Amino acid sequence: MKFRYRSEEEMKDSGVKWIGKIPRDWEVSKIKYIKSPDKNSFVDGPFGSNLKSEHFIENGEVYVIESNFATQGILKLDSLKKISTEHFETIKRSEVKENDIVIAKIGAQFGLSNILPRIDKKAVVSGNSLKLSVDKQKSNTQYIHYQLLHIKNNGTLDLIVSTTAQPAISLGDMNNINIVLPNVQRQDKIVKFLNEKTAQVDSIISKKEALIQILEEAKKSLISDAVTGKVKVVKTSDGYELVERKKEEMKDSGVKWLGDVPKEWDVKRLRFLGNLQNGISKSGDEFGFGYPFVSYGDVYKNISIPKFVNGLVNSSLNDRRIYSVLEGDVFFTRTSETVDEIGFASTCLNTITDATFAGFLIRFRPFKDKLYKGFSKYYFRCDLNRKFFVKEMNLVTRASLSQNLLNNLAVALPLYKEQQEIYSALEFKVGGIECSINKLRCQIQKLKEAKQALISEAVTGKIKILDEI
Predict the structure, then answer these.
(1) Domain boundaries, the chain
(2) If DSSP codes are grouped into helix, strand and coil, which group holds residue 432?
(3) pLDDT-derived band at 396, boundaries 50, 70, 90
(4) Which range (88-102, 165-179, 298-312, 383-397) has the least confidence?
(5) Nearby residues of 70 by Cβ (< 8 Å), 6 or more positions away
(6) Which range has the top average pLDDT, 165-169, 179-183, 235-239?
(7) Torsion of CA 286, 288, 292, 297, to 10 degrees
(8) Whole-angstrom Cα distance, residue 455 to residue 246?
(9) Exposed, middle or buried: residue 249 (CB in 10 Å: 0-12, 13-18, 19+)?
(10) How far apart are CA 156 and CA 40, in angstroms?
(11) C-beta of residue 288 within 8 angstroms of C-beta of residue 439
């Protein structure tokens, strides 16, 4: 489908600053005027105790549609929470049906939305979502969905969001949000155009994301093979090569999950290589001022601790002595709601003066000349270690990594000089892979921005769709 940009003569002032100019035969309306005339056509999910964990049952007859459907489009029916028909009758005002729009009400991604497809049971939206049924005589549901995407992306919702515990939008404010409306026939044409164009962009993005996944897996495999000795480092004139070791160069490590290691390497439990220390515990009012503080996120999100951390804590001189953050220290995520976030490691490559670290972390401090910091960076972030933790971990109310379990972690240990060579080779090889990944991510970001721009130009009338339905 073809399009052209409208001339200034074809446009008029919308009367709404953030909307700007619109085509002369379009109008500005509000969401409350395009919602279905049926009762409960624009509602939020059940409040508080009206829908909580005790209401969820394994064989329930009614699905609960949560905000991750609105934000990510995730709708795996076999993993949805369910409630009984009896409880559904008490919260029926929050029912959501096929072709309704589900909008995220609360959280960092507030305002994102998706259209509910046909499902095999009745459903309600959860308390962190809104449900909008569109009046089909006035609007195309998909067109309104595109309008909502435009409104989210251009920052309009930021003007009405409340920021108490979490960012949130209210039903009342959303009712009064301005939207741009051509007649229904033009809406249909715009929807057809955007569906075609966004599908093309999404297909390209999907292929690039698949390539990123392949590169990420290749990177993980490369690191695992290097730090466990499955390959050896060979210096070349233009960098490094990693060459597979022959079978006769290997020996049984004695650790099932570690497998074979080079004959000249040692295998040591972590307890013989250094000391462990849990992090600092402080009340909430001690944070936000004082001295540098390494947070859970600093470890979880990074293979090495950032040189400059954002966190601050009011730590004492003794705190800064006990919970110090020195070059060569390795930090492990210790506790979380699920095992998916446990056992991630991040190595400190440069001492952070006067810093302390979070209570949800464990610090491993190696004995002198046992572990090179660069080798630690890659070895302890390796997926093999996390698989060991997850397999051995005891789950109570929260997933937790104990010092005893961490002390029992097996470490494949080459000589210190070889550790340095492995680090240099991995920096060279992994750096190349990450460069490719970053280029792909930049391309994806540009594609997403182009897609958002196209949606905005279409739903505000900046472009005119030329093809007829």
Answers:
(1) 1-202+446-464, 214-417
(2) helix
(3) very low
(4) 383-397
(5) 102, 103, 104, 109, 112, 113, 114, 129
(6) 179-183
(7) 100
(8) 56
(9) middle
(10) 25
(11) no
Task: Average the pLDDT over 359-383 and give the result.
Answer: 96
- pLDDT tens-digit readout, 250-273: 999 999 999 999 999 999 999 999
The dihedral sign for the CA sequence 278, 283, 285, 286: negative
| pLDDT, greater one: 385 or 414 | 414
Token pair 């472009």 is at which residue?
A: 463
Q: Tell me how far CA of residue 42 lies from CA of 109, 138, 161, 206, 290, in angstroms.
A: 19, 15, 18, 33, 47
Please give the Cα distance from 259 to 34 (Å, whole number).
Answer: 64
Q: Which two tokens stand for residue 455?
A: 């949606």
Using one digit for the tens of pLDDT, what is the confidence trace for 28-56? 999 999 999 999 999 999 988 899 889 99
Extract the tokens encoding 128.
């962190």
Q: Which CATH architecture has domain 1-202+446-464?
A: Alpha-Beta Complex (3.90)
Please name the residue that has the structure tokens 């990510």: 72
Give the pairing of strands 356-357 and 287-294: parallel
Q: What is the CATH number of domain 214-417?
A: 3.90.220.20
d(CA 104, CA 69): 8
**Domains 1-202+446-464 and 214-417 fall in the same CATH topology:** yes
Identify any residues that bridge with 268 across adjacent strands, giving them in sequence order.
411
pTM of full prediction above 0.85: no
User: At 329, phi and psi to the nearest 5?
Assistant: -65, 145
Burial 408-429 (b: 16+ CB within 10 A, else e): ebbbbbbeeebbbbbbebbeeb
DSSP string over 391-409 = HHPPBSSSEE--HHHHHT-
